[in-house]
Amino acid sequence: VYENYGEISQISSNQYNYELNFEKVDIRLMVAPSPYNPTEGTLKIQYQLSQNSETSIAIYSLSGHKIYESTALSGSTGGLKGQNTLVWNGKYNGNNIAPGLYVVILKVGSNESAIIKTKRLGVKW
Q1: Is 125 within 8 Å of 99 (Cβ atoms)?
Q2: Contact 31, 69 (CB under 8 A)
Q3: Which of 18, 19, 78, 99 is deepest in the core (most CB within 10 A)?
């Protein structure tokens, strides 16, 4: 955003009015255990929604390769107000994911007004 604040010789400043709308959005994302070992159990992804919402959870490698995705419609399991839990077995194409660093991305809402939360996930064997 570029704003013109007037000429250097101008003594008084222009008045600008802005209408800001801050929605109260309280979304929490937790991933456990971290570091995660897929050979020893499942990964629990928990998130808290302030209202029923469409959700999408994806896990990416640091190189940007999507290894997992799950979506839920607003009002259905995974898209309900309150705490939601997703359990993942740590597998991609039938095999345990490799040790390394991954990114868990929670997207809440539609594309136009989506809210995105991220967490890092360490994987070790």
Answers
A1: yes
A2: no
A3: 78
